[in-house]
Design a protein that fits this description.
The protein has 147 residues and is α+β, with helices and mostly antiparallel strands. It contains four helices and seven strands; from the N terminus they run E-H-E-H-E-E-E-H-E-E-H.
Length: 147
Amino acid sequence: MTLIAQNKKVSFEYHILDRVEAGIVLNGDEVKAMRAGHCALVDSFARMDNGSATLYKMNIPEYKSSCSFKSDPVRDRVLLMHKREIIKLYDKTKTKGITIVPTKIYFNDKGHIKVELALCQGKKQYDKRDAKKEADVKREIARNLKI
């Protein structure tokens, strides 16, 4: 697995309930841009509409050496999933406060680009403070052990 991009904010902003892997439909210049490591998952999300899965607001900047076809960097992209997975996620997102957020985008062993989606529930402000305190404590312990 070769990691292209990771959304580190997800674990701070949300409680992760479940993770699912999905394929993604891309153009040729988008694949080349991803091979160069150009992709941003910040503020992107997925939705299950009309029996299909779509990824919104994922930014793939245009590939510099591409001359023929230029695609929109923030266009909506179709996700490739089994019908039963789409139905399962759709049913879970009906409840209030549940959303689907991409956490990673990577090349799998066969060279296909895959997106890891997380079924998330938003954290409250006090949960975020607790997570930050816990991270600070872990960092301080690691520093003391190094010395």
